[in-house]
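ok new one. same drill as before - structure tokens go in, u give me an amino acid for every spot. 330 of them this time. try not to just spam alanines like last time pls lmao
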């Protein structure tokens, strides 16, 4: 999936050595493609040997590693790393379905990695993929980084615990931490994931390719969304931030998103793909567990902190749908 993304000047002029964990996933692959195109050296690590993005240039700058960091995190590290993106994890519904696996991957393997970082490459920039699932009800109208996390699922709980550890590691100057709380990313290419929010991409992705998709929510259900293009732009921007741009013990940033309801998502699908695409979306009731998780997630945020730091938001959900439709023609 090729996206036309403008790199910050800092990224364009300094070559870095960067580790991406969970590099075989969609976000890791998309970010790796753009970093390679700009001449950076990458270590791509995952539980399986991750592919080097096909559309990337400078493929020789990437090393792909099959590594279980819950057993030995040091194997993916080197003293000369400039930055680390921590993307590996078990998604929300998967963490809820398998308690042991969720904690082993999302909590304990990340703790192992952070301790190995502290010993191998102290002070390195660490950019952690967190989630708005760290929040749970009841919430103010516009939650912010100052809102106390009260997750209502195992996934959000595991993310919140790692956020606290990152704050402490940064305060102790073991790492240079930036915790980014992602909105739901849509439209994701590829196959459905174990995320409870997977349908938010599926109701666009599958119909635009002539396939049926399941919709488990009514038209008035709202979600906090971000396109892949904007996510990557913000991930790149995180490489440019000064260490002192936030207090040493508060490293969380809510990435900007847009709020769209199911009716608006289907309207965007109709405008881009036509009525035939909308007819491929089939209604289905969610399980009580998934419904409770979806209903607990906030749908609007105060992102003034992120905007003040230079992060950006999408202009509309339709643009994300159009981006995905255009990628199918390439």
């Amino acid at each position: 999936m090729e996206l036309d993304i403008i790199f910050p000047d800092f990224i364009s002029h300094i070559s870095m050595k960067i580790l991406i964990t969970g590099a075989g996933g969609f976000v890791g692959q998309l970010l790796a493609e753009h970093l390679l195109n700009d001449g950076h050296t990458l270590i791509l690590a995952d539980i399986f040997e991750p592919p080097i993005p096909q559309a990337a240039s400078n493929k020789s700058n990437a090393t792909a590693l099959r590594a279980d960091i819950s057993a030995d995190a040091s194997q993916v590290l080197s003293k000369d790393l400039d930055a680390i993106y921590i993307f590996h994890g078990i998604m929300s519904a998967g963490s809820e379905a398998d308690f042991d696996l969720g904690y082993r991957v999302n909590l304990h393997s990340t703790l192992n990695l952070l301790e190995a970082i502290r010993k191998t490459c102290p002070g390195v920039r660490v950019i952690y993929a967190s989630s708005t699932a760290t929040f749970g009800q009841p919430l103010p109208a516009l939650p912010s980084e100052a809102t106390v996390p009260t997750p209502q699922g195992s996934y959000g709980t595991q993310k919140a615990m790692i956020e606290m550890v990152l704050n402490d590691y940064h305060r102790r100057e073991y790492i240079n931490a930036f915790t980014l709380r992602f909105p739901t990313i849509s439209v994701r290419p590829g196959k459905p994931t174990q995320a409870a929010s997977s349908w938010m991409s599926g109701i666009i992705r599958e119909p635009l390719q002539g396939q049926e998709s399941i919709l488990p929510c009514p038209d008035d259900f709202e979600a906090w969304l971000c396109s892949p293009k904007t996510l990557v732009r913000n991930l790149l921007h995180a490489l440019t931030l000064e260490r002192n741009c936030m207090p040493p013990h508060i490293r969380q940033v809510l990435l900007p998103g847009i709020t769209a309801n199911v009716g608006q998502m289907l309207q965007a699908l109709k405008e881009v793909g036509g009525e035939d695409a909308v007819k491929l979306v089939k209604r289905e009731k969610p399980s009580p567990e998934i419904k409770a998780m979806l209903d607990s997630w906030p749908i609007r945020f105060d992102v003034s902190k992120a905007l003040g730091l230079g992060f950006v938001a999408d202009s509309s959900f339709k643009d994300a749908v159009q981006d995905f439709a255009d990628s199918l023609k390439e």
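The CA atoms of residues 33 and 54 lie 8 Å apart. and btw The first strand starts at residue 17 and ends at 21.
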